[in-house]
């Protein structure tokens, strides 16, 4: 991806995935090579010699890539939207004038047809040709049977028929593979086009529409629903092909059996309502399953993003039960679906022989003199076998149509949801102001109340504007209104120039730190270094293991909140925009860093001094240096003016400043005294001289290890242990019952054919048919009974297979969930969430739906192959001479294919998570992407990751075609030799045996192909089992509960002791905490301070055993915490974290997920947190639905809810991890006073950026580079003139 930095836009070009352009060999090969896929030999050969890598695969044709497909489809979709919009206007007029309500909802079908119609027509023509050839084989077989009955028999004529049969089946093979390849590739292009449209829609979706779609639901639309669309596109030709094949088969059958065939057709027609009924049930079940799947993905995504909270609060079992509860409901749906499949298998197995029974019965009944000959019987059976496949497909086609209707409806609803209106913000206006509001009101939700009311303000270009106010007053919404993110109700919004936006909760990409700052632009090294210096990032780069090339984890999980915010600021600064919207970026950083940022970047003398800057802030010390102050109150601008104007005229503003000054006694009217970089350097040198500041070995340097951005792809053959793990979960009982049912049904199938062959052979030898006619009803009844028993065994096989698969699904899902929740927190820091989500969606889908089906069909085909070979060799022993070399070639082809196919499958598995991860990342950062105007770049990036996923799929598709052509060619040889042996035998072999051999020979082509393919599919799909099981072997955290349990009421005093404690994040890295020793008193209030990377958060991690120590002890009230279970420890500690994480669900469930507290207790803590009036005003009160991530609450309100959550736990130890960084000073003071009052009898450890919050602590612990510098009362530390004294002086705090 290339781009250049500029104010207005960026230009992009596609780069080859491997760095050098590769051509697709398929476009440059001869016709024969295309037909036989010989051009793919290179990949197959390479895969056999070594595990395939991405560079070994062929690239896509340009016409098949997302870069070509998506824009074409989007053009057609826009036409459909325009028609629908016109229809909407007409509908409105009709409703008003004629009271009619017709409305044309946009449909995906027409745009898809317009985009892909020529490909679809080509595929249909190939299907017609393949179907026509399928009906030629029975006619040639009929001719051979009749030739064997003629006297004398002509050997040459028989050989001619054998050659003709060979060429027909060979042509059918080549045409069918052309059809399958083109059909699947077209289906993939359809899915790709819709995925591209969903991604683009997600970037333009209005926030009012976004309320109806969680991240999990949108991800499910892009994965599950588009996959359903792909499956429908694969089977769409069956909608016309099935009736076509039925009609042709009936015509040929009429020629053989006359009007009696109508009895069989009538029975077929009776089956159609059954199939329709089954399809309707499947549709309902699919809809239910998708609903539960949505819920599970949504909850799981939130759990993984909030995993730190779950671990710190020991909530994993509660949320595990929630996931398992949803899963159980999904399992009930899968059970019903499985039983429905068993019923379908019964009808599908019974229909062919019932049709034969009805037809032959009618044949005898219509004319008593009718006699079945070998030609009539075996030609009819072959035709009915051809008919069997479309009949087998018919329910799945009807089911696919039903399921696709559900998916199409969901997709159309999403794609037609309301977008942001770009006309809400006017960019073409007169005047020299950068931003203007004229009587403007806004709301977030479609039918919600106005959040911002009657805003009127003009912000001059180049000015610095501060927006202040209490929590929930509308400060962040003010910036969202400038960006056009809110729905405008009235008035005018004006904005000029390019925009850079820094959100309150910094959005960080899963990329290197440098790429996060460049944000798609070219590197301008001098300006880049200037930005790094202005954003105080240079010291951090020295600490990072790879400097600015260090990979940042998903959502910035492996850097601190302050570092995330500074990276976000650096991204904005590097963009060189005209307008900067800064949503409280100073709250998450230390005081001295905040002053540095204001002086060097934001303030009147900073890097952005010539730009227009709108700064939302709770730091009122910066107000004297702003050009304009806007005070927000309940969504209105209550006051506005310069600092001096507001101080002199506005009593409320003075009160606001005084409230701030009560805690912080510095003079607001004096200039901000930011320590110079020289002074900071002097302090750094002093600390280094003491041997305490070692940039390369700091705790930060250890903690911020590499993220595992690229998934490792397994290599080598499938281990039998993987399949054994599945079979163990499947249950051996169900496995043996399945084998017994399948052996029985195949034995009965062979018995049916042998019974029929013997009966026909008797017919040929009988001269007087009187006796034969008397026994025919008996013979026919036996034939029917064998078929009926076979059908029952098929049904039983499907039933026990379903029971076993449900057992495996439940066990493997439960194990995976348990393994993931037991992983240490560091795993989630270094691995993208999308990787874990893909295990629960794509890989478990294989376990739920496919793997047992592949095992069952493989077993069935294996028994079919054994039965076929036994039948043919018993009738023609010479055939064994052909079977041995053909079997050898089968084995060789299979070995070559599996080696490559298995690795391509693994590459496919590794290429899918980046698509989901990038999409999820985009959904989280959509406001930032829109603000910077980088939608097109992210759309192109989506094309890149989708392209990579399709490349693996494309190579897998070609490898399947390569295999099929070769296997079917060997099968065609088997047919040819069996026909030649028959022809050369002359009159030695009876006509019934001729019919039996050739019909089995024709059948073996498909069976052998499907047998090898199923074996390959088992091995390639076992990759999903392997991926699910791999979490069982990963390092886990210590047990949640151990045999040693702390006594009830522990800890009762709250005395914490660190004794010579050492810890590191990895064994190959230095110490993150180095020989830390200190002890708190009971109920003591201890402040913990230190610069970024000092080890403050590491200390908390060790206390909660998120990080295990390598030496020393932590003792709480006399118990070494390493000797008890993690939940016994964490469940008895309390923490208010820096990031206020909430989960979707009710407000009540967020406060008390374990359901331990009464409503009265909840209202009490809400009152203590000053949230009672707010919650009481909500329509559903405690049952108010919190949206995903708590997005329908302000950050300050989320933080207060986290305080309420902590108040409910009532433990003796509380840790405040920079808990008030995101709230205004008044709320901060309120929170601090509440904590002092409610936790007065608790030991409180406070980690703070704002030093004033620790000034009232009884003692202060000063950390640097993982060591303790100082530990004493604040007064004593100030008198010593040490590190703490210097930090206080820098912060401008005077005591």
UniProtKB/TrEMBL annotation:
Residues 665-684 are annotated as: Disordered. The chain crosses the membrane at residues 119-141, 161-179, 232-254, 260-280, 339-364, 780-802, 851-872, 878-898, 969-988. The lineage of its organism: Eukaryota, Metazoa, Chordata, Craniata, Vertebrata. PROSITE patterns: ABC_TM1F, ABC_TRANSPORTER_1, ABC_TRANSPORTER_2. It is a multi-pass membrane protein. Keywords: ATP-binding, Membrane, Nucleotide-binding, Repeat, Transmembrane, Transmembrane helix, Transport, Vacuole. Residues 435-659, 1056-1290 form the ABC transporter domain. Pfam families: ABC_membrane, ABC_tran. Its main location: membrane. The keyword Transport applies. GO terms for molecular function: ABC-type transporter activity; ATP binding; ATP hydrolysis activity. The gene is LOC113982130. This is Multidrug resistance-associated protein 1-like. Belongs to the ABC transporter superfamily. ABCC family. Conjugate transporter (TC 3.A.1.208) subfamily. Residues 123-403, 736-1009 form the ABC transmembrane type-1 domain. One of its GO terms (cellular component) is lytic vacuole. It is found in: Vacuole membrane.
């Amino acid at each position: 991806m290339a781009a250049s930095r500029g104010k207005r836009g960026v230009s992009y070009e596609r780069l080859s995935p491997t760095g050098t352009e590769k051509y697709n060999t398929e476009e440059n090969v001869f016709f024969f090579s295309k037909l036989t896929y010989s051009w793919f030999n290179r990949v197959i050969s390479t895969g056999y010699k070594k595990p395939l890598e991405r560079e070994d695969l062929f690239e896509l044709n340009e016409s098949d890539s997302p870069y070509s497909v998506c824009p074409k489809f989007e053009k057609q979709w826009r036409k459909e939207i325009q028609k629908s919009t016109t229809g909407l206007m007409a509908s409105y007029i009709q409703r008003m004038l004629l009271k009619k309500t017709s409305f044309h909802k946009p449909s995906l079908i027409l745009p898809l047809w317009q985009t892909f119609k020529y490909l679809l027509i080509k595929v249909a023509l190939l299907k017609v040709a393949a179907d026509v050839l399928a009906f030629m084989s029975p006619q040639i077989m009929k001719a051979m049977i009749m030739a064997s009955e003629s006297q004398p028999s002509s050997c040459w004529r028989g050989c001619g028929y054998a050659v003709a049969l060979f060429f027909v089946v060979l042509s059918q093979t080549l045409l069918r593979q052309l059809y399958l390849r083109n059909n699947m590739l077209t289906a993939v292009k359809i899915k790709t086009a819709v995925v591209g449209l969903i991604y683009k829609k997600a970037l333009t979706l209005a926030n009012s529409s976004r309320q109806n779609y969680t991240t999990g639901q949108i991800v499910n639309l892009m994965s599950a629903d588009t996959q359903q669309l792909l499956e429908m596109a694969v089977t769409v030709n069956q909608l016309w092909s099935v009736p076509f094949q039925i009609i042709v088969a009936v015509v040929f059958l009429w020629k053989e059996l006359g009007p009696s065939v109508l009895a069989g057709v009538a029975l077929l027609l009776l089956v159609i309502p059954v199939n329709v009924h089954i399809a309707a049930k499947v549709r309902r079940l699919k809809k239910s399953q998708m609903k539960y799947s949505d819920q599970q993905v949504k909850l799981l995504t939130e759990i993984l993003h909030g995993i730190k909270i779950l671990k710190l609060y020991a909530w994993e079992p509660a949320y595990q039960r929630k996931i398992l509860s949803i899963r159980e409901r999904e399992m009930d749906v899968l059970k019903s679906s499985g039983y429905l499949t068993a019923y379908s298998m019964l009808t599908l197995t019974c229909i062919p022989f019932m049709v034969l029974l009805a037809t032959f019965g009618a044949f005898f009944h219509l004319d008593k003199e009718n006699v079945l000959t070998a030609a009539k019987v075996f030609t009819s059976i072959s035709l009915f076998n051809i008919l069997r496949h479309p009949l087998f497909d018919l329910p799945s086609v009807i089911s696919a149509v039903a399921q696709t209707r559900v998916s199409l409806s969901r997709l159309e609803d999403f794609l037609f949801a309301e977008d942001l209106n770009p006309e809400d913000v006017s960019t073409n206006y007169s005047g020299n102001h950068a931003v203007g509001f004229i009587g403007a009101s806004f709301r977030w939700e479609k039918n919600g109340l106005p959040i911002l009311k009657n805003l009127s303000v003009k912000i001059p270009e180049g000015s610095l504007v501060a927006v202040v106010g209490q929590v929930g007053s509308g400060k962040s919404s003010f910036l969202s209104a400038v960006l056009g993110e809110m729905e405008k109700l009235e008035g005018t919004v004006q904005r000029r120039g390019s925009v850079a936006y820094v959100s309150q909760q910094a959005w960080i990409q899963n990329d290197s730190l440098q790429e996060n700052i460049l944000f798609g632009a070219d590197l301008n090294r001098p300006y880049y270094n200037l930005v790094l210096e202005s954003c105080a990032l240079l010291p951090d780069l020295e600490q990072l293991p790879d400097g600015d090339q260090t990979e940042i984890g998903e959502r910035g999980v492996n850097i601190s909140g302050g570092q995330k915010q500074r990276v976000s600021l650096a991204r904005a600064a590097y963009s060189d925009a005209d307008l900067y919207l800064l949503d409280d970026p100073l709250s998450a950083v230390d005081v001295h860093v905040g002053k540095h940022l204001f002086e060097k970047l934001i303030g009147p003398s900073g890097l952005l001094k010539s730009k227009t800057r709108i700064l939302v802030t709770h730091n009122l010390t910066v107000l004297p240096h702003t050009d304009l102050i806007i005070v927000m109150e309940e969504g209105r601008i209550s006051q506005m003016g310069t600092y001096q104007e507001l101080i002199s005229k506005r009593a409320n503003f003075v009160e606001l400043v005084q409230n701030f000054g009560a805690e912080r006694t510095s003079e607001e009217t004096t200039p901000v005294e930011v320590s110079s970089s020289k002074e900071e350097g002097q302090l750094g040198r002093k600390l280094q001289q003491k041997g305490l500041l070692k940039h390369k070995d700091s705790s930060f340097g250890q903690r911020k290890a590499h993220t595992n951005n690229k998934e490792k792809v397994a290599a080598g053959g499938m281990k039998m242990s993987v399949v054994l793990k599945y079979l163990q979960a499947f249950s051996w009982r169900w496995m043996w019952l399945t084998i017994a049912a399948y052996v029985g049904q195949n034995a009965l199938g062979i018995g049916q054919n042998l019974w029929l062959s013997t009966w026909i052979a008797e017919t040929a030898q009988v001269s007087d048919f009187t006796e034969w006619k008397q026994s025919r009803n008996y013979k026919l009844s036996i034939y029917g009974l064998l078929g009926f028993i076979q059908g029952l065994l098929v049904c039983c096989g499907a039933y026990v297979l379903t029971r076993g698969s449900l057992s495996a699904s439940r066990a493997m899902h439960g194990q995976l969930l348990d393994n993931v929740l037991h992983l240490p927190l560091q795993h989630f820091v270094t691995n993208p969430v999308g990787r874990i989500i893909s295990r629960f969606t794509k890989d478990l889908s294989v376990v739920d739906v496919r793997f047992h089906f592949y095992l069952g069909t493989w077993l069935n085909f294996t028994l079919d192959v054994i039965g076929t070979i036994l039948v043919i060799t018993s009738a023609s022993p010479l055939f064994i001479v052909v079977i041995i070399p053909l079997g050898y070639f089968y084995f060789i082809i299979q070995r070559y294919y599996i080696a490559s196919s298995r690795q391509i499958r693994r590459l496919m598995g590794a290429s899918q998570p980046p698509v989901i991860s990038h999409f999820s990342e985009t959904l989280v950062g959509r406001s930032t992407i829109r603000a910077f105007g980088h939608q097109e770049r992210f759309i192109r990036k989506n094309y890149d990751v989708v392209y990579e996923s399709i490349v693996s799929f494309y190579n897998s598709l070609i490898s399947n075609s390569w295999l099929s052509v070769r296997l079917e060619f060997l099968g065609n040889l088997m047919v040819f030799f069996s026909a030649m042996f028959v022809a050369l035998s002359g009159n030695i072999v009876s006509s019934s045996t001729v019919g039996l051999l050739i019909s089995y020979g024709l059948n073996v082509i498909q069976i052998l192909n499907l047998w090898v393919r199923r074996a390959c599919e088992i091995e390639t799909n076992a990759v999903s089992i392997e991926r699910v099981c791999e979490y069982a072997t990963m390092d886990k955290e210590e047990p949640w509960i151990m045999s040693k349990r702390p006594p009830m009421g522990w800890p009762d005093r709250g005395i914490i002791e660190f004794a010579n404690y050492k810890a590191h994040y990895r064994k190959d890295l230095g110490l993150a905490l180095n020989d830390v020793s200190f002890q708190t008193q009971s109920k003591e209030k201890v402040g913990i301070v230190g610069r970024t990377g000092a080890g403050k958060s590491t200390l908390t991690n060790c206390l909660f055993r998120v990080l295990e120590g390598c030496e020393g002890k932590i003792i709480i009230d006399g118990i070494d915490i390493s000797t008890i279970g993690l939940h016994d420890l964490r469940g008895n500690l309390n923490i208010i974290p820096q990031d206020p994480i909430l989960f979707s669900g009710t407000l009540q469930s967020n406060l008390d997920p374990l359901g331990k507290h009464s409503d009265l207790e909840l209202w009490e803590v809400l009152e203590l947190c000053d949230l009672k009036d707010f919650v009481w005003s909500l329509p559903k009160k405690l049952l108010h639905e919190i949206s995903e991530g708590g997005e329908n609450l302000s950050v300050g309100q989320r933080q207060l809810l986290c305080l309420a959550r902590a108040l409910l736990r009532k433990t003796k130890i509380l840790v405040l991890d920079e808990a008030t960084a995101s709230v205004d000073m008044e709320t901060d003071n309120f929170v601090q006073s509440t904590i002092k009052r409610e936790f007065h009898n608790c030991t409180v450890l406070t980690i703070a950026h704002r030093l004033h919050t620790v000034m009232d602590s009884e003692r202060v612990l000063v950390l640097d580079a993982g060591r303790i510098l100082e530990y004493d009362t604040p007064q004593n530390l100030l008198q010593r003139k040490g590190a703490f004294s210097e930090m206080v002086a820098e912060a401008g705090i005077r005591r």
